[in-house]
């Protein structure tokens, strides 16, 4: 989708509000351009040395016109404020909705936190779009009505108006494509710098080393130089536009003054008409300046929409709405039939012809050397990724027949790289689910050996933690994530190295808890902890993406 199409889509969402803004601009434009006619009449009365009721009425009408235009502007500001709020709200929910539902493969070579930075482009769209609506609509109408009004004084102004419109179009046409292109390139390097700064912040302890510190500055210097190069290219386009604008203003001013002067000399216009014409000319010049400044803002808005599109355009998981297919949570059997998996644009198969069966309430350990495909198999069974070949069945039904929402409502999953989100410990465990009772939370905290950790914190479960949980140790972080996973009693539990940072004793006790007969889940775990082998009835040994032993 092109940036212009994205802009059209943005407009189409709030058509009614935009129509109102244009309507107010038309009314305000007509009133504003009728004011010179009133001033013309007032001057004529003054020249004639007449102070009459008509003169007083004209003064009152002009003043009322100024007030009414001001009221219309205030109403426009109210509408544009509503638009800004709508854009922000829609964008925030779109990002919040999309990120969890983006296909895994789409994010395979991406860094999601960096992509989330695209949300800040909403602020540019938010401010820029409303300003464009006000300034551009007003400027275009001002130029159009100004030319129409001038043509009433003499037909020659019609020809002059046509020349003005053609010149404006040519200036826009010659600059728009290259201006947008250079703006996009500039923005690209702007985000590369932001991403690199994010990397420095994320690894700030490593960058304390002199050699790595110097490397960070050197790389930042390279990125900044490239950014400045692209920024300069964009500025050259803007500079060219302003040179053209200056020439355009000189042409309009000289042309209209000469024409107006000649018409006065030839007695085809009086002084009042000439003054009114000059006011109109000044308003046209001011409107042209708004158009050119708006063009720069237009580049920024289109660029921001394109950057936001890098998230919006990512393909979402297919939503299958099939109310007739419901997972029988009391009897869940998982089967893999000739399952293979490889990433897009990759010839390497991470999984090859996998055949397996996991029975209800069965506990299965997936083991193997690093790179054998353990994590890939776990995520495939959890439906985070889809097989490139073969099928996965739930109760003899292809799991694609079930909606992802229906399937995921029955599962709990902990991945190796999962961390808490920013909020209280209680929020991280319950996600503010009102159905979860505090008694259940306290019992689970005790079972997962978190009680002493939480007691040591001044606010206990209400302690705020950062997104990386730096206030507590890594073992406690894993246990909080595990608590969040199992608090809702999932029927399928997928665990990837869930306790590898815990001490042996607590690890053993937690595994025993997860293995209790009264637990509701079928358990599939990836771990190098040998104790899992003792409690899991089935062990799948992977080697180079194939099942070696089951």
What is the CATH superfamily classification of the largest domain? ABC transporter type 1, transmembrane domain
| SSE arrangement, N to C | HHHHHHHHEEEHEEHEEHHHEHEHEHEE
Number of strands: 12
The CATH topology of the largest domain turns out to be ABC transporter transmembrane region fold
Secondary-structure class: alpha/beta
Strand-residue fraction? 5-15%
CATH class of the largest domain reads: Mainly Alpha
CATH architecture of the largest domain: Up-down Bundle
From the alpha carbons, calculate the radius of gyration and give it in angstroms.
34 Å
Count of folded domains: 2
Residue windows where pLDDT falls under 50 for at least 5 positions? none
Percent helix, as a range, is 55-70%
Describe the model.
It is a single chain. By secondary structure, the chain is an alpha/beta fold. The protein has two domains: 14-312, ABC transporter type 1, transmembrane domain (ABC transporter transmembrane region fold), CATH 1.20.1560; 334-549, 3-Layer(aba) Sandwich (Rossmann fold). 62% of the residues lie in helices and 11% in strands. It is built from 16 helices and twelve strands. It has helices at 3-13, 15-47, 53-101, 112-116, 121-153, 156-202, 210-265, 271-312, 374-381, 404-408, 425-430, 438-447, 451-455, 474-486, 504-514, 531-535, and strands at 334-341, 351-358, 363-368, 389-394, 397-398, 411-414, 423-424, 464-465, 492-496, 522-526, 538-543, 546-549. Strands 6-9-10-3-11-12 form a six-stranded mixed β-sheet, with helices on both faces. A hairpin with a 2-residue loop joins strand 11 and strand 12 (546-549). Helix 1 (3-13) crosses helix 8 (271-312), helix 5 packs antiparallel against helix 6 (156-202) and helix 5 packs antiparallel against helix 8. The protein is elongated, with a radius of gyration of 34 Å. The mean pLDDT is 83.
């Amino acid at each position: 989708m092109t940036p212009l199409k994205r802009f059209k889509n943005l407009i189409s969402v709030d058509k009614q509000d935009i129509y109102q803004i244009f309507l107010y601009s038309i009314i305000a434009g007509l009133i504003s351009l009728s004011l010179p006619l009133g001033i013309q009449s007032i001057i004529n009365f003054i020249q004639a040395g007449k102070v009459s009721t008509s003169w007083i009425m004209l003064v009152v009408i002009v003043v009322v016109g100024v007030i009414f235009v001001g009221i219309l502007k205030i109403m426009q500001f109210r509408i544009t404020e509503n638009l800004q709020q709508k854009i922000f709200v829609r964008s925030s929910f779109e990002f919040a909705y999309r990120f969890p539902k983006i296909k895994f493969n789409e994010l395979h070579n991406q860094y999601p936190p960096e992509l989330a930075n695209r949300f800040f482009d909403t602020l540019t769209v938010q401010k820029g779009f409303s300003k464009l609506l006000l300034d551009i609509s007003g400027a275009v109408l001002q130029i159009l009505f100004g030319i129409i009004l001038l043509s009433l004084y003499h037909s020659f102004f019609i020809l002059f108006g046509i020349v003005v419109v053609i010149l404006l179009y040519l200036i826009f046409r010659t600059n728009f494509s290259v201006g947008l292109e250079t703006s996009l390139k500039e923005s690209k390097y702007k985000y590369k710098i932001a991403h690199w700064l994010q990397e420095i912040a994320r690894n700030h302890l490593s960058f304390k080393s002199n050699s790595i510190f110097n490397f960070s500055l050197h790389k930042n210097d390279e990125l900044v130089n490239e950014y400045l190069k692209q920024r300069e290219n964009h500025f050259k386009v803007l500079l060219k536009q302003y040179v053209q604008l200056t020439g355009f203003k000189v042409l309009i001013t000289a042309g209209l003054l000469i024409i107006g002067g000649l018409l006065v000399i030839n007695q085809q216009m009086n002084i009042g008409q000439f003054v009114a014409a000059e006011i109109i000319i000044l308003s046209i010049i001011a409107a042209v300046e708004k158009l050119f400044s708006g063009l720069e803002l237009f580049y920024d808005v289109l660029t921001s929409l394109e950057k936001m599109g890098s998230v919006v355009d990512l393909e979402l998981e297919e939503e299958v709405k099939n109310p007739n297919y419901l997972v029988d949570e009391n009897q869940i059997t998982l089967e893999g039939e000739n399952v293979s998996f490889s990433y897009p644009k990759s010839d390497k198969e991470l999984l090859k012809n996998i055949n397996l069966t996991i029975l209800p309430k069965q506990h299965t350990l997936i083991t193997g050397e690093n790179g054998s495909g353990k994590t890939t198999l776990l995520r495939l069974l959890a439906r985070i990724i889809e097989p490139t070949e073969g099928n996965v069945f739930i109760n003899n039904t292809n799991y694609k027949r079930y909606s992802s929402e229906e399937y995921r409502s029955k599962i709990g999953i902990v991945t190796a790289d999962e961390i808490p989100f920013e909020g209280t410990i209680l929020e991280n465990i319950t996600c503010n689910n009102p159905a979860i009772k505090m008694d259940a939370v306290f019992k689970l905290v005790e079972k997962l050996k978190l009680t002493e950790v939480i007691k040591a914190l001044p606010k206990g479960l209400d302690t705020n933690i950062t997104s990386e949980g730096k206030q507590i140790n890594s073992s406690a972080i894993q246990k909080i994530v595990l608590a969040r996973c199992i608090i809702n009693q999932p029927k399928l539990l997928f665990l990837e190295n869930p306790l590898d940072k815990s001490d042996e004793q607590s690890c053993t006790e937690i595994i025993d808890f997860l293995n209790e007969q009264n637990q509701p889940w079928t358990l599939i775990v990836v771990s190098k902890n040998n104790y899992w082998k003792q409690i899991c009835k089935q062990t799948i040994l992977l080697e180079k993406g194939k099942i070696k032993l089951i």
